[in-house]
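SAMPLE LOG
Freezer: B-3
Tube label: C17
Construct: single chain, 412 aa
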Amino acid sequence: MNNDDSTNTPDQTKRRLIKLIGTTALCGLFNIAPSRAKQASPMKPTPITLFLCGDVMTGRGIDQILPHPSDPHLFEAFVSDARHYVELAERANGPIKKPVDYAYIWGDTLAELQRVKPNARIVNLETAVTTRGAAWNKSVNYRMQPKNVPCLTAADIDCCVLANNHILDWGYGGLSETLTVLDKAGLKHAGAGNNREQAQAPAIISLPGGGRVLVFAFGTESSGIDPDWAATAKQVGVNLLTDLSGETVAAIAGHIGKVKQPGDLVVASIHWGPNWGYDIPHEQRDFAHGLIDHAGVDILHGHSSHHVKGIEVYKDRPIFYGCGDFINDYEGISGHESYRGDLGLMYFPRLDPATGKLTGLTMTPTQIRHLRVNRASRQDARWLADTLNREGDALGTRVALGEDNRLELRWG
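STRUCTURE (predicted):
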């Protein structure tokens, strides 16, 4: 073998340089067709990461510790003053220095959001933001003083889902003001509007580099929504579903089809079912599958249950049947302890932007304590993992508990 390059042909010398240096730039330098040189592997698109959580209830006790509390008078059977819920929390876990700043209620959430840097942040806002209207005749009424709306912008929330059973707690006038306050604060919303068309319209969140997240929101009577709250052609209200039939799936598919463009990811956020219980009715599963099969939905974001429920991955699309509460003032209230309603999850699904398929799901366990969100302990994170594994068994999913107390979903 002759190692003297002077005996090689010019073309052989070019090939050896390309092999040794390993860059396609030399192909251009020597004018060699790319098809005759080794091609670089195509870059995989960067996954789109979302932040989802369950119910964010900033009224009542939460509102009372913020800088501008509402009139504390309540119309509940056993509690007439919202400050009583602050007292219950303090009895359980110690004093809260009031007023707190707007970021306080999010607690450890903010550092976790900064770490993950999700492309869009979506919450179910289960509180009217108003000083108007009269209390609707129901057992519990939530409202937050509009001046406290910076508690939502403090977490850079992109979309507030409003199709739930508390958004009209202070009547049609209260919802109208809520919509105005959110608009002025630059907070997108979905699931309620000044008429049916607005209530059915999605919140549209632009993604870096193109593409969008479309959030369509729906409510059901099974979650406690009054039928009179349904938006009409001329009346403010929520996007209320009359049933979970195939006809309803087809109607939703029509609405989505009018808006969805190539590169868009679709979130269907739905308030359904009772507050307590792990059961997932067959009609909910069929409806979720139908939205994925026929309406182009990439994520189903379910809420209403005060505790986390099982997770399913259907055709590489995640279905969260119940995300649990995330922020509330239930601290110190007895009852339903076995469900651990004080525990929640920050859901971080990662999606392939080209296909909408789920590529990964990490969940950060949380606990409400001192009326703020805190990272859960190892023991509580393990309880959540065991619960999700038990409930996910029939749905084909499991979770792994990491050393950092975060959970990672396994499926398929």
